[in-house]
């Protein structure tokens, strides 16, 4: 029964009582009893109203606190996204590492408040549900509980959102810090491999620069041995160059970019490697061709000497036969 209806019935009964001064005593007693019952109902309803007011304030305070914390967590999640992209550069990675550590300290400072609100909210919902089950079934109490149910659903939803977002934010920060450590190790390794490739290419280029022309037949064997050794040294250089390319490919991703300086160094390695490879291949082909021609000429000279020797031997035999005759 609603409070307004109770007041209306009470007013009607009072009017009847006042107008019934001459009614029989029995009737008057009935009216007085009815008024007493209505007074009790009114007192009970007023007490329920006073109880409902702090309960409503408590619900509103809980919801407001949860929503403010959810907004804070969402804002921090956006801030974390803004520092996700990074250059594969040691100084840049160190700056990101400092930013992530500061972010971690900020979360740790806010953690007690968030954990406390989550715990208090869950306890309040649990206790409130228990009290609702144990309460009497008066009309006003039922009306208040029915009005409170939507707020309870909203509170549970906000609790779930805050709990999930808070856990996700901390887990994401853990992943980014671990990823930063991995990127620093990979970037350092890439720089070492790039330096090694530059050093090996510089040595090969220096050897190529000292090559002499192929016009001296007397040094043909020496020059052939020289280019043969260079070809043997090409395999380690090729492995280092390939490793540079593979490491750079593994390092780059949707949130990782190489610095312009590193990109230029990688491009320089590829260009220089192509030039060294071409120079060695050309030298080898020319030396092979020159050696083949040299061998052909040598075979021709040997054949001519054999022919001359055979001719001289035949002449000597003929002369000996003539002398005997």
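Sequence proposed for the structure above (325 residues):
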């Amino acid at each position: 029964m609603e409070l307004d209806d109770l007041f209306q019935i009470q007013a009607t009964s009072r009017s009847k009582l006042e107008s019934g001064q001459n009614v029989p005593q029995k009737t008057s007693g009935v009216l007085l009893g009815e008024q007493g019952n209505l007074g009790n109902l009114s007192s009970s309803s007023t007490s329920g109203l006073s109880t409902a007011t702090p309960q409503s304030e408590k619900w509103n305070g809980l919801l407001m606190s949860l929503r403010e914390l959810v907004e804070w967590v969402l804002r921090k999640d956006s801030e974390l996204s803004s520092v996700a992209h990074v250059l594969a550069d040691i100084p840049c990675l160190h700056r990101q590492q400092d930013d992530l550590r500061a972010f971690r300290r900020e979360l740790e400072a806010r953690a007690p408040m968030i954990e406390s609100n989550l715990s208090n909210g869950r306890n309040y919902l649990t206790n409130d549900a228990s009290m609702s089950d144990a309460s009497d079934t008066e009309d006003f109490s039922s009306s208040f509980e029915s009005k409170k149910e939507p707020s309870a659903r909203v509170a549970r939803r906000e609790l779930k959102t805050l709990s999930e977002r808070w856990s996700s934010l901390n887990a994401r920060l853990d992943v980014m810090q671990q990823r930063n450590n991995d990127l620093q190790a990979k970037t350092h390794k890439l720089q070492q491999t790039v330096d090694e490739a530059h050093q090996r290419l510089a040595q090969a280029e220096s050897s190529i620069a000292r090559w002499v022309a192929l016009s001296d037949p007397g040094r043909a064997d020496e020059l052939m041995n020289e280019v043969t050794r260079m070809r043997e040294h090409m395999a380690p250089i090729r492995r280092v160059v390939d490793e540079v390319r593979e490491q750079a490919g593994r390092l780059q991703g949707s949130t990782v970019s190489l610095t312009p300086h590193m990109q230029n160094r990688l491009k320089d390695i590829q260009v220089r490697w192509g030039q060294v490879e071409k120079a060695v291949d050309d030298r080898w082909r020319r030396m092979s061709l020159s050696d083949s021609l040299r061998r052909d000429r040598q075979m021709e000279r040997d054949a001519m000497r054999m022919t001359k020797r055979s001719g001289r031997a035949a002449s000597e035999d003929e002369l000996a036969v003539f002398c005997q005759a």
